[in-house]
Design goal:
Length: 331
């Protein structure tokens, strides 16, 4: 748990700006972006924010969580870095880091801890008839990664929804219980998990591909027991790059769905545009923009995902090795 917590903090500090740029490039695809809300991400977590071209000086308490300047056209990764820094200040590349860590760190702890236990359990019980002696290890790792992600998303989803409403209504932490009670009363208990499906559709395939690839590399390079720091950096980057590229269309869909959800939350009438099913959204984007639209933001996504995965897994494995050696010395 301490190892995963350490990795999450280090990763968020270094890799936040790349995800900010990636989501901004994806968000440009929607014409409705400037009407109600926009999606902002700082590396660990997505933020749905009201659009506010001007600041309400007479009622400063009514200002939204984030005051976005008039949007500009972003032309590529480097151009996005320059324009965001100039227009909004370089600190905006790390916007929302504090509230993110409140939810993201427990989410990471739940995810990695669950993965370790599930991987051990599945490795013992997965049949060996599927292949050679090394096959069950990578299969159990991929399956454990997917199941762990489902569990982590399920646990954290209600807190994500509350956090979004806190941003929308400018409420304090002390009023969280009232928000939860109102949400359940008006929309039912299931409404606390709104947005669960698109999150799972993006994160679960990524987790399966990532752990399957990572563990297979450990087997191939004979690094199963105590992988070296250099190996974890390389293997984490490669695994993250493969998983990030193959799941990018699902990430684009999740961005669109979150913006549609924000339009419903932030609008006065409580109704927003219908985003349609995942297949309908994929077909719509492909019909209008082709394959390029489905892989919008691939460069900043890989520029963030590959080093982020490398930093996360190397910090995690290094911390585990440290605690393992310390326990052996005590014994």
């Amino acid at each position: 748990m301490v190892s995963s917590c350490t990795g999450a903090i280090i990763t968020s500090l270094f890799m936040t700006p790349f995800d900010v740029v990636k989501v901004r490039l994806q968000a440009q695809q929607r014409a409705e972006l400037s009407r109600t809300c926009f999606l902002y991400c700082n590396g660990l977590m997505d933020h749905l924010c009201k659009c506010a071209p001007t600041i309400c000086t007479s009622h400063p308490d009514q200002n939204p969580w984030y005051n976005r300047p008039v949007p500009v056209q972003l032309n590529g990764t480097v151009d996005a870095f320059v324009k965001i820094s100039r227009q909004e200040g370089i600190q905006s590349l790390w916007s929302g880091l504090s509230p993110t860590l409140i939810v993201a760190v427990p989410n990471t702890v739940i995810y990695f801890t669950t993965y370790e236990h599930l991987r051990t359990f599945l490795h013992r019980h997965l049949p060996t008839t599927l292949g050679g002696d090394t096959t069950p290890s990578s299969l159990s790792s991929g399956l454990a990664g997917g199941l762990a992600r489902v569990w982590a998303v399920t646990v954290v989803s209600p807190f994500e929804l509350v956090r979004t409403k806190m941003q929308a209504s400018n409420i304090s932490y002390g009023e969280v219980s009232k928000v939860l009670q109102s949400q359940v009363t008006n929309n039912g208990l299931v409404s606390l998990w709104r947005g669960w499906v698109p999150t799972v559709l993006r994160d679960v395939p990524f987790s399966v591909l990532y752990w399957l690839t990572y563990e297979q590399q450990k087997i191939f390079m004979n690094q199963q027991q105590q992988p070296s720091f250099q190996f974890t950096l390389y293997a984490g980057a490669v695994s993250g790059g493969i998983a990030g590229t193959l799941t990018l269309p699902l990430d684009v869909i999740k961005t669109h769905r979150q913006i549609a959800l924000g339009e419903q939350i932030f609008s006065d009438s409580g109704s927003g545009s219908k985003s349609g099913s995942t297949y309908e959204l994929l077909e719509h984007i492909y019909r209008r923009q082709g394959v390029r639209g489905l892989f919008s933001g691939v460069v900043p996504r890989l520029a963030k995902v590959m080093p982020a995965c490398a930093i996360m897994i190397s910090s995690y494995e290094y911390a585990k090795k440290f605690f393992r050696q310390r326990r052996q010395q005590e014994q």
